[in-house]
Amino acid sequence: MTDETPTGRDTSGRFVKRAATAVSAMSRTSDEGIHPMSKVLFGWTERKNIGAILFWVFAVLSVLLVLADLAVDRHEKIGFANSVGFYGLWGFLSFAFVVLMGWPLGRLLRRDEDYYGDAGGPPADVDPDLVDTRPGAASGKPEGDA
Amino acid sequence: MILELLLTSAPDWAIRHAAVLVVVVPLIMAPILALSPSGRLAWFLALLATAASTYFAILTLGIVQSTPGGIIEYWIGNWYLIGIEFRVDALNAMILLIVSGMAFLATVFAWPTILADVEKQKISLFLCAFLLCFAGLCGVAATGDAFNLFVFLEISSLSTYVLVAMGARNDRRALPAAFDYLIVGTLAASFYIIGVGFLYAATGTLNMAEMAAQLPALAGNRSVQVGFAFIVVGLGLKAAMWPLHQWLPNAYSYSPSFVTMFLAATATKVALYALIRWLFTIFNPDYSFEQAIFTWVLAPLGIAAMVICSFQAVFQTDVRRMLAYSSVAQVGYMILGISIATAAGVSAGLLHLFNHSLMKGALFMALAGVCLTYKGTTVRDFAGLGRSAPFTMSAFAIAGLSLIGVPLTAGFMSKLQLGYALFDHGWWWAVLFVVFSSFLAVFYVGRLLQAIFFEAPANPGRHRKEAPLIVLVPLWILALANIYFGIDASFPVGLANDGAAAALGLEALQ
Amino acid sequence: MPAFLTDLNPGWLLILAGLAAIFIKIRSVRQVITIITPVVAILLLATTQHGVDHLTYNALGIELSFYRVDSLNFIFGLAFLIASLLNAIYALHTDNRLQDGMALAYAGAAVSATFAGDLMTLFIFWEITAISSVFLILQAGTRAAYFASMRYLAVQILSGVLLLDGIAYVWHYNGSLSLEAFTSLDQPGALIIFIAFGIKAAFPFLHNWLQDSYPKSSVVGAVILSAFTTKLAVYAFARFFPGFNELIWIGAVMTIFPVFFAVIENDLRRVLAYSLNNQVGFMICAIGVGVAGVGNPLALNGAAAHAFVHIIYKALLFMSIGAVLYRTGTAKASELGGLYRSMPWTAVFCIIGGLSISAFPFFSGFIAKSLTMSAVAAEGAANPAMIVVWLMLLFASAGVLEHSGIKIPYFAFFGHDSGKRVKEAPFNMLLAMGMAAFLCIAVGLPALVPGLGYQWLYGLLPYPIEAAAYQPFTLDHILTQMQLLILAVFAFILLKRLMLYPAEKPGVILDTDWLYRKVGYGAFRWVDTVWSKIGPATAAIATRLASRAYDNMVATFSPRGMLSRNVFSGGMTLWTAVILGLVLLVSYLTS
Fold it and tell me: Model's pTM, two decimal places?
């Protein structure tokens, strides 16, 4: 069809076609199931020492933010909130507290999945292709059948 | 307006003796019925008797409403102060109207169910017992004499045992049920008469009005209090006040379906009436011990009935038992209303009494229709009936919704009034129980309606078959009344307000 | 636009279109309806005059006003309509008449309730939201969903019954059903209505219907459900109970306790449900601060703004997890991970949602939460108790970051690679997510062009003048918020490196639903067992006494008959004696 377009619009037609091919290439999942955009968007997370990098980036950022607090003269309504690094400290402690509470709470409150006797499966409106391949994919998600 | 028309058109003797004729007509008709050779004739005569009673009850109501004091005093045989007095005020008139009206509708629809439930040669006797029961109930509601009340109570009770036992043809369990009822009924009557005895000893009179006049002077008298306790418990037994209700589910479940419908719509109501009469007219909520009974005994028992029996109803598999437990729960609402001991509270209790006889009447009538055509009263038997008997079942559904208290039905109105009264009294916590109990009603009625309308029939062989027309007509009258009084409640509310005012000896509320 | 159209409650349009959609078998026609209707409704709403009762009707002596727009409900209604449009796009890949129709009707009921001009109308549509939304849970088609939907329905109906009850009192005592705010909980009906609203807003201990049902609904259903019910309750509180101190504390507790559950919860949709609870807590708290003093317009503005942005970013998060569920068949953190490889766009949108809900500057959550926090802080200057509340909210802000900002994207798309290689979400899902993400960013930006960015939202708030005077993008705000968030993220990285972060394990987390699902169910089972033992016993005897002569005996003396008789002879008289004794005792003691 596109080959028979009038010559006048040929270039633009070809451009559109090329763009469409590019978009389609960028949105077609490869055979290994890897989406091409993932490399562009999140390729950086696959670096080997990403953990250490993130750690140091955020450590430096944190220090910078606390230091910046020295430079900014804040006018808080609540007195003690004016102390340097208060928000940072509160945020850090809150977060750590919440996460660490996860250990005892998890032990206290977590039960088997069929505790209520109705562990259930996925809802009816999941991808129909998925349902078709479920017998084959059963080994991929052993917990789902438990 | 209809009342005025009736009053002007009624003959003089009818107006003069209306209050007594309500009772006397069925009382005299009963032995005549027993002699009737044919069941059909007996039924026809019973129909006439209940119709006449209804007519006189309406007349009585009209007279009460048009008399300045609102009280008819009728001394039988004109033996003033020595004989028996019939004393009818707005409260009695309301109860008389309910009882006779329901009896009339019950008799109308009864014919096909009697044919199915009762052996042919016993029909006349069966109807005779029914009329006696009816006369007894009316008598309780009309008399102004404490001992006479006992007599009428016994007349109605004894005939009720017979009626319940007649269910034995379909289900032998009716016999033990009747026997249990007999024991409990006798217990109740003895308690009542013991109480009356104590009071007679203290006051020297059996006339209620006289007794009421003498009691204030006897403040602190122990025998009065003991008499009071016996009477409350005795009448509580009759009214199926929780936990004295255990006779009721069996009696309702195994008696002939027509009897169930009649008893559910009237019997406990009359006992409740007697209780109100004793609690408010003869005794007085100003007495400190009575106030305490209201707060610490009646209100908790009423609430317990509402909640516990609603739960029990949820777990029943037999529809008649479910409705029976629901009845006990509804009595709980009325007891709760009474225990507020304000005019508004008593009025709410009376309104619920009125509405409850409408809805339970309709429910049991529809049930009787189902028994007639489909045999079987378990929830499973009801599955899919919405398609096979749409008219019977939609009337059933309307009454069921009214039982829940859905807006635009009569049941909603009375629960609303009860809620107002509770709130006015400061018992807002009790409102939560009322709501919770209605919430349970959603489940037991909902379960039934779900089976009726959404489930496939248990027995696919059944095809469309309605209850006979003679059942459908009174059934729909009741169902439509449930809706009508849910939209325009002025008539029953007026009755209940007047009744409450009469019971408490106040000027009419309106 | 013709007058009769602008006088029509846009919610009704949605309800009608929804009911029609149920019966339309042609998929494309239905799709057009589901998309066009919200758009038309938004146009109708935009052209409607404010502060006028548009459609009134007198029934049974009650003056009903079906459509009334004012500055408070406008923004809620608009948010509902936008959510409805996003949902319709998100659902385009499905072909489910009931779900399409009920989604529209549910949204329509919520809009109609929002624009109700009197209590009775509010109640009617309040109930319709309950009933229409049940179908969305049922569409999941699983056994668990069926039971959850029944529990959900029971709770919702209970809320409706209570509301009706409260309305009856208000009508009885005030003789009016107008939308006037209560002044104290002692007013007739106020407490009951408060509880009714509280159930829908999922107050602590009344909250469990939400975590129970939303995660069990269908993929599309969860997205739709997340938008309406609780926010309608928030609106109702803002309308009837502004400035009630009780709300401050309830809201503060509400922001905190879901945080702990969200940390240990494995089902990501359930994590989002807890997060929803926590967000509603912020709004409730803001409403409580409402009229109290300096914070007045600021706080109500905060609640309204928060509701608006929350509806969108919460929908976005539910959409992204829904897309994951759609493609992989599971939303459990323990079974997911590493999905950015196959669903990068979904991952991007999910992160945008996470950044918004965590209130990173330049995302929508920031401009809404700042209003609330400033209002509470302003109160705190005068009232030390409010400092505690303020600290609680600050704590909860870190908590939000934990479960919605980090946990959701991290465990779904990064973290341990589950090895699942699936297709990217369908285009319509991506489109809906993209639109929601666009709104999240567009609303959160500083007003580079005056009137756009955050100022667009501020202009729609109940107190636009006060809102215009408020500056969210000050150096103070940005710095403190960044400090809070960045150090919290740092805490995450640190804990992760130290292996102190609890791993996601499969399992259910007990909550208050344990009481009725386990204890109550156990009691029910016990009764059932007893019952079923009695039944076979009857049957066994009946078979043994098969001879016809004994049949009557069985009918008379069967265990059930005997049982009731035993209860009878002993119990009944005993009870009579007990009651008699009780009556005697009470009258003896009190005379």
Answer: 0.67
